[in-house]
Amino acid sequence: MLVIVCYDVNTETAAGRRRLRRVARVCESTGQRVQKSVFECQVTLAQMEDLERRLLAEVDLGLDCLRLYRMASTRGCEVRQHGKFRSTDFEDPLVI
């Protein structure tokens, strides 16, 4: 399934800037960045729950905002993209 992760971390303090880096690192380990604080992750349900648990361990819920959008099926889900962006097709074979 496709999961969209969006976050807004309060970076007014050094601790907030550290949280921002840690949240981004967790997201980068699972998906691809499509905006500064938005990631697309192709995961199973178990992986999504693990991702959510790891992200919740990093954010301060009193200061930060974390949103996960679960798209159970890409059918019926339309993404319109404008501007320069290089994406990875998760369905194609990975060539290194």
Describe what this molecule looks like in 3D:
This protein is of the alpha+beta class. It has a single domain, classed as Alpha-Beta Plaits, CATH 3.30.70.240. It has two helices and four strands; from the N terminus they run E-H-E-E-H-E. It has helices at residues 14-28, 45-58; strands spanning 2-8, 32-35, 38-42, 65-71. A four-stranded antiparallel beta sheet has the order 2-3-1-4, covered by helices on one side. 15% of the residues are buried.
SSE blueprint and pairings:
Elements: E1 2-8, H1 14-28, E2 32-35, E3 38-42, H2 45-58, E4 65-71
Antiparallel strand pairs: 1-3, 1-4, 2-3
Helix pairs in contact: 1-2
End-to-end Cα distance, whole Å, is 24 Å
The largest β sheet comes out as:
4 strands, antiparallel
CATH topology: Alpha-Beta Plaits
Stretches with pLDDT under 50, minimum 5 residues: none
Going by helix content, strand content and strand pairing, the class is alpha+beta
Strand content: 15-25%
SS elements, strand count: 4
Overview in brief:
It is built from 2 helices and 4 strands. With 96 residues, the protein is an alpha+beta fold. The chain has one domain (2-71): Alpha-Beta Plaits, CATH 3.30.70.
